[in-house]
UniProtKB/TrEMBL annotation:
Transmembrane segments: 57-79, 345-369
Membrane-topology annotation of the record: Single-pass type I membrane protein
Single annotated GO MF: signaling receptor activity
InterPro entries in the cross-refs: Cys-rich_flank_reg_C (IPR000483), Leu-rich_rpt (IPR001611), Leu-rich_rpt_typical-subtyp (IPR003591), LRR_dom_sf (IPR032675), LRRNT (IPR000372)
Any one GO CC term of the record: plasma membrane
Family per similarity comment: Belongs to the Toll-like receptor family.
Domain of life: Eukaryota
Disordered as annotated region, ranges: 307-328
Protein name: Leucine-rich repeat and transmembrane domain-containing protein 1
Keyword presence, Magnesium: no
Length: 405
């Protein structure tokens, strides 16, 4: 609950109103009492003149109470605050949330900067809904029943920076719907039923930094729309029905560049086809997009180098196929019998085997060399030992023969 603060424009006339009311009450009490007793030809009663009782003071208190109650009921009307809203004058904040409103109040204060209309039952916004609040910077329409936004509904809101349209019933958005919002910085379209977004929602948003479109029914997103947001830094796309076919390849390339430049985004989980269901779009290898046509002639050089041979000339489907079959052939990602990553794995295994074989041969050669060297060394030492022992045997034999003789 926000305190009811009387704007300065309304406070100016309150002292004058009190003085006027006091004079009228005193004059009324004096005239009424004097005329009544003069009519009956009697003097004023003692009770009317003794210090304990004052008719003027009594009437003054009653008048003040009436004046205060009137101000409480009439202040919203006099000062421009809608009857079912709460206005905070110092910050120019108007809170009309949770009031069961079916439309935007028409008597909003023109100096309003922040307007909260969340948790109501607003179904439609006319073209002049916010004409009376040209200085508006924040507009919150969270949790209403909006199903369509007509072109020009935000016209005149040149200073709007934050627009929250979360949790409504929007199905689609018109092209250039937000073209009159050059200062927009945050746009939240989450938790709707949006199944398609146009290639442009307005002029290039030089100031937009946050764009949220999660929890909708999107199957694809045009890259041109994202390129119209050169300063976007937070992009929320999860919980949609993303169809990870060739149409989503350009989005994948754009997101990789976006993340490389420091952007923040969430995961894009594929909902179809079954081959990629539950997979993160950004983690699908580029080689698996080889059957897809080249996304765009103006791809950045880094992206082209990254794709390499995966995005060269694409073979055409047979001429005897129907147009529907041709479109299906061009759009769906065809998982190859032996994808590139498997070929790379086989090549790695072969190279590893060759290296291991060479190492084994080298170890075998070293073992043979060691054994041969050991045998030669042993034979050499045996010959040397035989040569040393031969004179000793001859001398011993001569001594034996001489002793026998």
């Amino acid at each position: 609950m926000y305190p009811l603060i009387i704007p300065a424009s309304c406070e100016v006339g309150i002292p004058q109103m009190r003085k006027l009311k006091l004079r009228e009450s005193e004059r009324f009490a004096q005239d009424h009492t004097t005329s009544e007793y003069k009519h009956h030809g009697s003097a004023l009663p003692p009770s009317a003149t003794r210090p304990g009782f004052n008719c003027s003071f009594f009437l003054f208190v009653v008048g003040e109470l009436l004046l205060l109650s009137s101000m409480i009921f009439l202040l919203p009307v006099v000062c421009g605050c809608p009857g079912r809203c709460r206005c905070h004058s110092p910050s120019n904040f108007v809170d009309c949330s949770r009031q069961g409103l079916a439309e935007v109040p028409s008597d909003l204060p023109p100096q309003t900067l922040t307007l909260h209309l969340q948790d109501n039952q607003i179904r439609q916004l006319p073209a002049s809904a916010f004409k009376s609040v040209p200085q508006l910077t924040t507009l919150n329409l969270y949790n209403n029943s909006l199903s369509n936004l007509t072109s020009g509904v935000f016209r005149g809101l040149q200073h709007l920076r934050v627009l929250n349209l979360t949790q409504n019933s929007l199905h689609s958005l018109e092209s250039r719907l937000f073209h009159s919002l050059p200062q927009l910085r945050e746009l939240d379209l989450s938790s709707n039923n949006i199944s398609h977004l146009p290639t442009s929602l307005g002029e290039p948003w030089e100031n937009l930094t946050v764009f949220a479109i999660q929890q909708n029914q999107l199957q694809q997103l045009d890259r041109a729309l994202l390129e119209s947001m050169p300063r976007v830094r937070h992009l929320f796309l999860k919980d949609n029905l993303w169809k990870c076919n060739c149409h989503l390849l350009s989005l994948k390339l754009w997101l990789e560049t976006f993340i490389y430049k420091g952007g923040i985004t969430d995961s894009i989980i594929c909902a179809s086809p079954d081959t990629w269901k539950g997979k993160d779009l950004l983690k699908i290898p580029h080689e698996l997009y080889q059957p897809c046509p080249f996304p765009s002639p103006d791809l950045e050089s880094s992206q082209v180098q990254q794709l390499g041979a995966a995005h060269q000339a694409v073979p055409r489907p047979p001429e005897n196929h129907s147009s529907g079959e041709r479109d299906h052939w061009e759009c769906e990602i065809k998982p190859k019998p032996r994808p590139a990553n498997l070929r790379h794995a086989v090549a790695t295994i072969i190279i590893t085997g060759v290296v291991c074989g060479i190492v084994c041969l080298m170890m075998l050669a070293a073992a043979i060399y060691g054994c041969t060297y050991a045998a030669i060394t042993a034979q050499y030492h045996a010959g040397r030992l035989a040569q040393i022992n031969e004179p000793a045997k001859t001398e011993g034999k001569e001594l034996f023969d001489s002793s026998m003789a």
